Automatic annotation (TrEMBL):
Gene that produces this protein: aroB
Entry GO CC: cytoplasm
Cofactor(s) needed by this chain: Co(2+); NAD(+); Zn(2+)
Any one GO biological process: chorismate biosynthetic process
Source organism of the structure: Wocania arenilitoris
Keywords: Cobalt, Lyase, Metal-binding, NAD, Nucleotide-binding, Zinc
Name of the molecule in the record: 3-dehydroquinate synthase
């Protein structure tokens, strides 16, 4: 697969990753190389990555605990302190090997340490390959509130080696698939149609779908890097999805949802709201619900919880001037941004999902 240039970053795929990485290390003569991993990628991904890394620079490994609950400023402080104690300087490089938590948090750490050091993202989950590692968004959660603290900052390289997907459990693969489904809904009906029967999907097919997803996101981000307009469309399903994810994360009696599991619910809700407000075909909304629930377990949300989830919408990053702004669909491939939605319609959407 041909490498993709996106703003100031280059995205490489599979074997081309390591040729590009080692050439980059040779040309830039970094003083030290730091590799950020979590306990899972330390065990399953790091050995393979180190085998292919060629450099005379000192390599140090920094390991953090795995999981969204560790995507915090406290974890950043631990990594910043480790960098300081290991004598990182402005010419050091941080390589983030992991899923979305690692690439988001690692990018934020690199962008702020000594006012910014170089970093490379090596996404190892499907979600981070098609979403988190591409586009320059970095950051951490504020309590249970998703991605409230962060900056937009571009990695030197993004290295997508799809062999890492062989280390993932099925629920993590489904979590990443949710973002690919979103890319189809907001951008391209032909791409969306490829997901209607995944039973015949080969690994080669998956590589191509990942490549197409990266192209879709790259094209959006290049046109609108700071989310003033078009880039907001990438948040389809995320306004309510993030609120649901935060609600489940902050309640100990609820099973924590993976990002993609919450976004699937959010997209079903947003499809229903699109039908009610901007004329999205009702038949297509029904098809989306049926398709998604054939791939994902239904999430139990009680009526008594609707208001608490709706209250969390005020923290959504797309909000301005006190308005909660939704991304809706007029048709597949034609999103509409900055839509205002009454709470009563959101409640109707929940009831549609639960019915």
């Amino acid at each position: 697969m041909k490498s993709i240039t996106a703003n100031d970053s280059i995205i490489h795929f599979n074997e081309a990753c390591y040729t590009a990485l080692n050439e980059h290390l040779k040309v830039n003569n970094f003083s030290k190389i730091f590799i950020l991993v979590d306990e899972n990628t330390y065990e399953y991904c790091l050995p393979n990555f180190l085998e292919k890394l060629e450099s005379n620079a000192l390599v140090e490994i920094i390991e953090i605990e795995a999981g969204e609950e560790h995507k915090t400023i406290d974890t950043c402080s631990g990594v910043w302190n480790s960098l300081s104690e290991l004598n990182a300087d402005r010419k050091s490089l941080l390589i983030n090997v992991g899923g979305g938590v690692i690439t988001d948090l690692g990018g934020f750490v690199a962008s702020t340490f000594k006012r910014g050091i170089a970093y490379i993202n090596v996404p190892t989950s499907l979600l981070s390959m098609v979403d988190a590692s591409v586009g320059g968004k970095t950051g951490v959660d504020l309590g249970a509130l998703k991605n409230q603290i962060g900056v937009i900052s571009t990695p030197d390289l993004v290295l997508i080696d799809t062999t890492f997907l062989q280390t993932l459990p099925q629920n993590q693969m489904r979590s990443g698939l949710a973002e690919m489904l979103k890319h189809g809904l907001i951008s391209d009906e032909n791409y969306w149609n490829k997901f209607k029967d995944l039973s015949k999907l080969s690994l080669e097919d998956l590589d191509e779908l990942i490549y197409e997803s990266v192209i879709i996101k790259k094209n959006v981000v290049e046109e609108d890097p700071f989310e003033n307009g078009l880039r907001k469309t990438l948040n389809f399903g995320h306004t309510l999805g993030h609120a649901i994810e935060s609600y489940f994360l902050s309640h100990q009696n609820k099973k924590e949802l993976l990002h993609g599991e919450a976004i699937i619910v959010g997209m079903i809700l947003a499809s229903y709201i699109s039908t009610e407000l901007v004329g999205f075909p009702r038949k297509t909304t029904e098809e989306i619900k049926t398709l998604f629930l054939s791939y994902y377990d239904k999430v139990a949300i009680d009526k008594s919880e609707y208001k608490s989830i709706i209250d969390l919408l005020k923290y959504d990053k797309k909000n301005n001037h006190g308005n909660i702004n939704f991304v809706l669909l007029e048709k597949i491939g034609k999103p509409k941004i900055d839509c205002l939605v009454d709470d009563s319609i959101i409640i109707d959407a929940f009831e549609f999902y639960e019915s």
